[in-house]
Design a protein that fits this description.
The chain has helices at 7-13, 22-27, 36-45, 85-95, 121-144, 161-173, 183-198, 200-229, 244-259, 264-272, 274-285, and strands at residues 3-4, 50-53, 56-59, 64-65. Helix 5 (121-144) runs parallel beside helix 7 (183-198), helix 7 (183-198) packs antiparallel against helix 8 (200-229) and helix 8 (200-229) packs parallel to helix 11. It has 290 residues and is mostly helical.
Length: 290
């Protein structure tokens, strides 16, 4: 906070003990510190006395002292912030990958890499059934739109429920029994429902990670599983109507737009939910190996 030094206060400085010390007196043996001329020179240095200019007296500007502690601190920049909030979410998500999954990954590998998986059809069906429950839940939430921002994410082209219904129908035609949803899927769906009613920032974190992860690593996993147990059959779950890159870009723009109305604290809260999203999705993914 700036402070002003008025004339009366400046003059009183000369009466303070430090201006009367023996050391200061010894520094000016031929000068009386209380002499008018000395006082005048000191006060003029402080900018608090009249100065003569052109034969007329003018008041010198008062000295303004600004405390260095009040200088504005540089704004903290978050990784990816310059490109929009989706890039911030992507950065945090990448750090939760292992190094063999993403160059930004920091997590230690747990279990075998996907290339060495030995999936079963029964386990894969449990994965697909639980995934469908989660996507049904997500799509129902944005349709109901407890918060107006959710409505932005209707009919994005990323929806997976109908595609999964077709795939499960195909498995049934092949003679497989379609199981009921299991604990991982039921637990995650319930959590998303509860979250969506009270915490839109946290819900958006899950929305982003579920859809975008499936469009990237999810496709790679689907391809590997199909090679091992489905004779390379490509399921509808891994197909999109239209240009996937453009569909994703459209949703990125919507997410960035929604996040523009959030405070920095709300954005951080959203980012902090990423680890939970990975945990719930990981529980469902591991069903493939069950």
């Amino acid at each position: 906070m700036a402070s002003l030094t008025p004339v009366s206060q400046s003059q009183s400085l000369l009466d303070k003990p430090q201006f009367k010390s023996p050391a200061l007196q010894a520094s000016f043996p031929h000068v009386s510190l209380r002499s008018p001329s000395f006082r005048f020179r000191v006060l003029r240095k402080l900018g608090s006395v009249p100065s003569r200019r052109g034969g007329a007296l003018e008041m010198a500007p008062k000295s303004v002292v600004v405390s260095a502690t009040t200088a504005e601190k540089p704004k903290k920049r978050y990784p990816g912030e310059a490109k929009g909030f989706v890039e911030e979410m992507r950065f945090v998500a990448m750090k939760l990958h292992t190094r063999d999954q993403a160059k930004e990954g920091e997590k230690e590998p747990q279990g075998q890499p996907v290339a060495k998986w030995e999936p079963s059809v029964d386990g894969y069906l449990r994965f697909l059934v639980d995934s469908k429950l989660v996507y049904d839940t997500l799509e129902g939430i944005v349709q109901k739109a407890a918060f107006d921002s959710y409505a932005e994410f209707r009919n994005t082209g990323l929806e997976r429920s109908e595609k999964l219904a077709k795939d499960l129908g195909w498995f049934k035609e092949q003679g497989y029994t379609i199981p009921e949803p299991s604990t991982p899927g039921v637990t995650y769906a319930r959590y998303l429902e509860e979250l969506s009613e009270k915490d839109p920032q946290a819900f958006i974190c899950h929305f982003y990670n579920i859809y975008f992860a499936h469009s990237a690593g999810g496709r790679m996993i689907g391809k590997k599983v199909a090679e091992k147990i489905l004779d390379n059959k490509a399921l509808e779950f891994y197909k999109w109507d239209g240009d996937l890159s453009q569909l994703l870009q459209n949703v990125r723009e919507k997410l960035n737009k929604v996040a523009e109305g959030w405070t920095r604290e709300e954005k951080n809260h959203c980012l902090e939910e990423t680890e939970k999203s990975f945990k719930y999705s990981g529980d469902i993914l591991r069903l493939i190996l069950s």
